[in-house]
Amino acid sequence: MVLKIFFPQCCNMAASGLLIGHWLPGQDSAVVLAVVHYPFIPGQVKRYLSQLRNESQVELAVLGSWSMPKDGQEGMESFLRDLSTIFPQGRWLQLSREMGKKGFTCRVVQRDGGLLGEEGENGDGDGDGDGDGDGDGDGDGDGDGDGDGDGDGDGGRVIFIHYDQRKVMLCQLHPPEGGARGVGAVIGGEESSELRLVFSAVAQSQPLFFTDKYDDGPLKLTHWQSEGREGSIIVELAKHASVPVCLLLTWLLSLWTWLCSVTNLQPVRFVSSKLSTCVQLSYRTEHLQIVSSPKTALGHSESMRKANIFVSFFVDVALGLLLISWLYQENRISRLANTLVPVADHVAKELQELLQWLMGAPAGFKMNRALDQVLGRFFLYHIHLWISYIHLMSPFIERILWYVGLCACLGLTFALSVLSDIVALLTFHIYCFYVYGARLYCLKIYGLSSLWRLFRGKKWNVLRQRVDSCSYDMDQLFIGTLLFTVLLFLLPTTALYYLVFTLLRLVVVLFQGLIHLSVDFINSFPLFAMGLRLCRPYRLAEGVKFRVLCEEPGKPLHLMMEINPLGYGSVLQWYRTPTYSCYPKDSWAALCKKLFVGELVYPWRHKGTKID
Amino acid sequence: MSDDEEFTDINGKVIFLACQNHSSFCREFTVSVPKVSLRHVMVYTCSVWLVAYVVFFLTENTAVLSGAIFVTLVGMLLHVHFVKIDHETLLIIGSLGVQVSSSYASGRESTTFIEMSKIKDIVINESIYMQRVIYYLCILLKEPTDPDALSSVVPLFQSSKPRLNCLVKVYKSCQEILAQC
């Protein structure tokens, strides 16, 4: 097997001492975490390690020695070699470095079962006179040298994998897209993978890295360390303030939910489920409850979720305030209100003209004149009602808009939801026309289909849910055929009205769907994760990549382990906040079939609120 | 320790295979494709511009010409950044894993690393591609629960599809390393 040594980059230039690290269980690899510098007392090292072991739950051990020759430290090498008797280990690594050379020399001393092997005398073995000298340290040395199993010379059975300790410690490794279901799988993924073990070992040994270079302990260590602890008074204040703020928020939210549950009677519930503003309000409440919960987030996924919700909430509110500051300047609200009524009037007038056109001979078709007139008058009367309703409302519209516009300070999503609701209310006549047309058309289609069965001497058996043959009387057949003919000839007129109003309705639905999509986008976009990916790409890792650092014949291979950041698409997939799906539930074919049969379609959600 | 050898891909175009022996258990294979040729760029640009000029001649709308310039620029950028792969590298490190990376003409690199514990084998496979049968090198991945079962296949050298003689060379040295560990 090849021995893999994960070596932190920051220890490259460390002074001589002991290597502290962790042997991966079951794997032939060691993770070096720190270097203890020379003047140390072995007892203290042992005590320190056992203390760290308790804190971090990582099996920390002394892996071997590290020597970095300096002037005036000639006896160092042999001293460090002798240390292996003090720290008994299965294997003892002896890494040494020479000035002016890139690679390390590595020697592995095995001491289990009396075998003292030297697994690769990788150094520049020519001048290395002490290659055979290391037998003296171990009493059980039964002739060292290359006498052990691997006969393939000094090709280097050791790989050095250099890693950036800080990045590896902070990074979160995501499993490959195979387990792309839910963020919860991040933690529960297969832990057997070697790289995952390395990452978790480095991340867990965080207590080791707490000491910085200004700390004066009994031991001098080299590892990744911060440039001294820095504190910002604002951050500290915010940390202290966050707990009472969260408590207050939770209390307010519980009050609010209690209020909602009290008023949640049948008509209120029905209306609020139709109004997209109310739906947005309930989602916002839910999100705030998640963010303000006083429990600390367990695990990476939950904290990321909280952060995402928090950041998108702030961005949303900021955008809303921006909108308000724009809207409430220069009398824009009243101008908006003044244009809104003429627009509604204009739409109504256009509809009237359309109906007039349909009542004549639309596109040269000759309709059933009587039915055409009846339907046309019916719809015209409806529009008349609508116009008077709008005119009744028009003095209050500015006031209403002014107050409703204030809800944009809750966020841009609220403003958009209100816009969607206003559109729904202002196009209520189109919705009504659509429903009337669809009902009429549906009735005709059903009548025609059942009469068609009668025409062929069959009927629909309700009990057995199938078409049975049936013998009809002469009278029944006569009446049925007569009705069939009447319905068939009246069908084009109804179908025309249905077609026109369905098209109008679809335009409105499309507009509302766009608004809902943008609201959903703002709600679910993982802004924090995206920012993290953009500014600190190593925090969210998809995997690792290796680069060959130096390749000298006869020296161990040096690889550089870099972190392969998660792609933007995967970030979106992992961290999208789950929201209500406002995507159409029907497929296109099902939608077309529904439209053809005349069933009511609600492609987005149940729209078209009831107003009295 | 690297040598560039000339091979052909399945369409008969010239590709280069470079093998680099970093150590006895670490090898790197790079298949490089010739760079974007100036002739191709010229042909595509000229054809787009000719079409644009004809449309401009018929409609006398200058927006067509600026649109054509825009389309060529964006098309070239997208091609260089997302489509054109300059070299594909396979780095196999004994007992650690296999790294597959492809670098695009714009310098973008996409890398995946597969750990040795997940790899079952590296084989040469054959498949039907359009109207012919081609060979390709692929990595077989183990099922995490059942080590005998196959979970998926990762094809290598997907953009430059080398012929069998090139694949055999890569395959043999890969198997040498796999057999060692």
Automatic annotation (TrEMBL), chain A:
Source organism per entry reads Synaphobranchus kaupii (Kaup's arrowtooth eel)
The molecule here is called: Phosphatidylinositol N-acetylglucosaminyltransferase subunit Q
InterPro entries referenced in this protein's UniProt entry, alphabetically: PigQ/GPI1
Key words, A-Z: Membrane, Transmembrane, Transmembrane helix
Sorted alphabetically, the Gene Ontology BP terms of this entry are:
GPI anchor biosynthetic process
User: Spans of biased composition, class Acidic residues?
Assistant: 118-153
Provide the transmembrane region boundaries: 309-328, 374-393, 400-427, 433-455, 476-500, 506-529
GO cellular component: a single term: membrane
UniProtKB/TrEMBL annotation, chain B:
Which keywords does the record carry? Membrane, Transmembrane, Transmembrane helix
Q: Name one Pfam family in it.
A: PIG-H
- The species is Synaphobranchus kaupii (Kaup's arrowtooth eel)
What InterPro entries is this protein classified in? PIG-H, PIGH-H_dom
Single GO cellular component annotation?
Answer: glycosylphosphatidylinositol-N-acetylglucosaminyltransferase (GPI-GnT) complex
Protein's UniProt name: Phosphatidylinositol N-acetylglucosaminyltransferase subunit H conserved domain-containing protein
Q: Where are the transmembrane segments?
A: 41-58, 64-83
Where does the signal sequence lie?
Answer: none
- Locate the Phosphatidylinositol N-acetylglucosaminyltransferase subunit H conserved domain: which residues? 89-158
Task: Look up the record and name the pathway of this protein.
Answer: Glycolipid biosynthesis; glycosylphosphatidylinositol-anchor biosynthesis
Q: Of which family is this protein a member?
A: Belongs to the PIGH family.
Q: Name one GO biological process term.
A: GPI anchor biosynthetic process
